[in-house]
Amino acid sequence: MVIGSTTHDFYYDQGRVYSVTTNRPNFYEEVTYTYYDEYFKKPDHRFKDEIVQVTTLPDVGPIGWDSSDSIVRKMNYMWSRSEDGLIPRELQSVYLHGRSLRDNIAHQYNSDKRLTSSVYHYNNANKKHTQIYDADPRYIHKKIVYTYDKQGKLQKASFLAPSSETPYLTIELEFDDKPGYLRTLPLEARFMPLELPYRNHNITRYTVKDREGNIRKDLSYTCSYKYNRDGYPIKIKRTMLDGQELEGYIVYKASIGKSEVAEASLNAEN
Fold first, then answer.
1. How far apart are CA 166 and CA 117, in angstroms?
2. Beta bridge partners of 164
3. What is the pTM of this model?
4. How many other C-beta atoms lie within 10 A of the C-beta of residue 70?
5. In a 3-state reduction of DSSP, which class is residue 176?
6. In sequence order, what DSSP letters do the residues of 117-146 get, joined into one string?
7. Model confidence over 119-142: pLDDT tens digits?
8. Cβ of 209: how many Cβ atoms within 10 Å?
């Protein structure tokens, strides 16, 4: 979630996104992407324009990802795809100082090729560190279930612990009908805090609820936009339910037949 002044910078080359950097006070993160033809050194690979590897290099300072054992880097591998180009499984490796964690993520899709669930199974060979990620939703075994409305817009993301039918966290969403400013960015090009598997439109309401159904006002917000003549948002105003207001802008660069985000920034309103 964005709190305060944050900037995302996107680097494209030949129509492909190759990196996204996130910069805010006391925090910096770079996410880079490698494509099938580059990774396997096969220019004619059938999935040559698809992302096969995502590398995340976080700030390892006092406001880094993990205060108890700073993360050096995180890597996601998507080596296999179905005939439709969908990703049934991916491997994630998290490298910390002196050790590493590895997990497998299994994905399921509906008949419309939309992601409906992701199951994370973490392997921890060093049992003495179990408490680090058992107490942190980023590292526990978990299942995320995605629900869509009749228009195909993402409606809800539910986070469940193993063998539980009650989500420990739920995100409810509403979108506008305008083209999303991230719609040209592949879903594999994940970066925090925008890892939801839907980018066709722009979020207008983002509501986070805990296990008891209480709304987390510090994480929940509404959004309004100003659009350009093509319908893409160029200004954004985000109002947190705890009262804080954030304003920002989105800058696009020209590409062949489509708009690509060059920069997105969100700043706290005085």
1. 15
2. none
3. 0.81
4. 15
5. coil
6. EEEEEEE-S-GGGHHHHHTSTTTS-EEEEE
7. 988 765 554 444 444 444 455 578
8. 18
